[in-house]
Structure formats: C-alpha cells, structure tokens
Germin-like protein (Heracleum sosnowskyi), 222 residues
Amino acid sequence: MVSSSGSKVLFICFVITTMTSFVALATDNNPLQDFCVADANSPVLVNGLVCKDPKVVTENDFFTSGLNVAGDTLSSKVGSAVTTVNVARIPGLNTLGISLVRIDFAPWGINAPHTHPRATEILTVIKGTLRVGFVTSNPENRHITKVLNEGDVFVFPQGLVHYQQNIGYGNAVAIAGLNSQNPGVITIANAVFGANPDISADILAKAFQLNKNTVQELQARF
C-alpha cells in the first residue's frame, strides 16, 4: 500500500508531468528529421509547411542576408521598422521552431503594443536606449517595465501585450529571437480599430469607455 504522504508525492509528480506536457505542446512541434525545408509552392495545407524533397535542398534554403541594412523608419507612423527573418524568408526554418527580427527605431519611435500568439521573445539592444514593458493577464494587468541600454537583454512571455520605445535622440536598434518559425504578431490598435470589416463602434465605445464619434475617428485612421 502507498501511504498518504506517498500518494501526495505521486499526485504532485503527476501534476508536474502533465503541466510539462502542456508546455511542450504550446511551442512549435519538434522536427522528426534533420530538416524540413519549406516548399512554398505546394498546394497541400498542413500545420506548418510541406517539406521540399531533401535531394533538391541547397545551402540557400538555410540562408538570408541584408540584416545589416536599417529598416525604413521614416515612412512609419510610429517611428519603427521591423525586419523579419522567419520561415517565409528562410525556408530551412520550417519545423525548427525559431525566428528573429531586427527592430529599428527613429528617435522616440515605438514598436506599438502587440502580442506574439505563438512565441516568447528575447530582445537584445544593439544600439541606443529603449524603454520596454509587458502587461500580465487579467485581473492583475501588472505593467512590468524597464529601461535597457546597449547589450541589455529582456524577455517578453508568450502571448502577453508588450512594446518598446526609443527614449533617446538618436536611432536605436534591437535584435529579438522568438521560439517559433512563424510567431505571428497582433498589433493591438490595428486589430481593434482596423478590423475588416469594422468591429461595431457601439461595442468599442463601451469597451474603451469612449464616445462613438471618437471610436469612428480612430477606425478611420486605421
């Protein structure tokens, strides 16, 4: 027979094992072969992308260049530009569960509040000074924020709303890694006020405690 304390230990072990399994399921699937280079021309729809025949794979399927080139922040309304390196740019990333971005900031530019539904992000400041932060889930909605200088690193947990702001008078640059080949991005303002077709102005007015005319003005901007 198993004692009461022994039963509790077994139960705790079961819970930990179950939780670990759920965490594993929350990230990209592990590859089952050396690589699965994406075949962008395949008509087959799968969770990810269909593999190209390994015999026709080349070194260029695992390569890209140009990340040394600054993004165009001048044409951005928020003063930032994100250069993405995901599976669409490097087909060899398919099934490997990683991607990265370069973020360029004009002086006082922002990377507006957004989420990555499929990835945690780890960001390193390469140049300049950034104020960064994220907000925890309801009901606490705790705002965790920090000022980062060159060489500093900060983590944004998967799915949480987060942002970055250049708080300097010169340009700033950051590189961020994400644990998904296609992390996705939902920019809050764009999603809420730029939905197509529109979310009812009555709904948004009540949700944001604004008058209907203000909501319609915001929708027109997006």
Remarks:
- The radius of gyration is 21 Å.
- The CA atoms of residues 51 and 143 lie 41 Å apart.
- The helical segments are 4-25, 188-193, 201-208, 212-221.
